[in-house]
Amino acid sequence: MQNSTTIGFIGAGNMAYALISGLVNNGFNAQNIKLSDTDAALLSLRADEFNLEVFTDNIELAAQCDVIVFAVKPQVLSIVCKQLQTHIDHKPLMISIAAGVRATDINRWLGGDIAIVRTMPNTPALLGKGATGMMANKAVSNEQKALAERILGAVSECLWVEDEKMLDVVTALSGSGPAYFFLMIESMTKAAVALGLDEKTAEQLSIQTALGASMMSSNSEDSAHELRAKVTSPNGTTQAAIESFQDQNFEMLVSHAMRAAFDRAREMGVELGDDD
Ligand SMILES: NC(=O)c1ccc[n+]([C@@H]2O[C@H](COP(=O)([O-])OP(=O)(O)OC[C@H]3O[C@@H](n4cnc5c(N)ncnc54)[C@H](OP(=O)(O)O)[C@@H]3O)[C@@H](O)[C@H]2O)c1
User: Do 38 and 112 have their domain in common?
Assistant: First the structure.
């Protein structure tokens, strides 16, 4: 990304804050970041913290940017896009982080023939530890793809998918995924309390175990399956627990849950695009 590239964020909420922090921490010049929102008080806070230019008018912001990141709620995106439609002759790259809104709908709302990267980040992006699925439409150049990857890469691991439909799988996997792990932490804590441990100790051990297992998995050459085999001694405690999970068909439970998330993501895509 050239140092002169100007990035405009529409929506100054949590995700824009995380992305701007990530970019600035990675050495991107805040002078080349612009931010718009309807909330003047929030803009003032952001301007004070990052020393960047802020706008209450999205059109004014768009006119000055090479890249525009849509960081508003999904339900607001059609309004914002239609507002910009006749003000983007300079053809900025459009990046959407809005959950569920399809690139084809964004393209239509913006007037067509627009370079769009649609992304699906997840909540750990707020701590710089996100996982983001990304998809580019045909109008996006390789240079623009690299630019989008640098922006989302400031807070997350970025993985590309070719087919937009795969973003519904990404939604069911990494988009909703943090909540699956929270449920596991919650369930393990409750089970330990039922076995007699105090709640605070149980919760701390659960959280640290999730963190340690995740780090082992991410730092190791071994697959999760191999790591599990290595920590499962024959006839030991782990084997007893894993066999109990398997007796209850744990894999099927996960598979059904992710299918439900996938189906809902598809439904939401249709609902959010149905603005006529
Ligand atoms: N938070 C996450 O972890 C996460 C993860 C994955 C994806 N996302 C996606 O990221 C997007 C932003 O999420 P967020 O959590 O950052 O939301 P947020 O904190 O609510 O921020 C959105 C901001 O946009 C402002 N806004 C509303 N209408 C606007 C308009 N017409 N023009 C300009 N700004 C406007 C809102 O102001 P008001 O509050 O006054 O309406 C708010 O300040 C969402 O689409 C969400 O699906 C978020």
Answer: yes
**Closest atom of ligand 1 to CA, residue 14:** 16
Shared domain for 97 and 199, answered yes or no, is no
Q: Are the C-beta atoms of residues 46 and 76 closer than 8 Å to each other?
A: no
- CA 11 / ligand 1 centre spacing (Å): 5
Structure tokens at 118: 């649609």
Q: Say how many domains are in the chain.
A: 2
Burial class (CB in 10 A: 0-12, 13-18, 19+), 160: middle
In this structure, are 186 and 141 located in the same domain?
no
Here the tokens at position 83 are 């507002």
Asked whether the whole model's pTM tops 0.90, one would answer yes
**Domain with 89 in it:** 7-162
Per-residue pLDDT tens over the stretch 53-73: 999 999 999 999 999 999 999
CA dist 71 and 98 (Å) reads: 6
Length of the chain: 276
The response to whether residue 73 sits with its C-beta less than 6 Å from ligand 1 reads: yes
- Do both 66 and 103 map to the same domain? yes
Query: Do the domain assignments include residue 146?
Result: yes
> CA 264 → CA 105, 135, 166, 269, distances in Å?
18, 19, 14, 9
- 67 and 14 in a common domain: yes
Alpha helix locations (H) across the chain? 14-25, 40-50, 58-63, 77-84, 103-109, 142-153, 166-170, 177-194, 199-219, 224-231, 237-247, 250-273
Q: What is the pLDDT of residues 124-180, one digit of tens each?
A: 999 999 999 999 999 999 999 999 999 999 999 999 999 999 999 999 999 999 999
Of ligand 1's listed atoms, the one at least distance from the Cα of 121 is 6
Residue 220 CA to ligand 1 center (angstroms) comes to: 36
CA–centroid distance, 246 to ligand 1, in Å, is: 40
Q: How far apart are CA 26 and CA 43, in angstroms?
A: 22
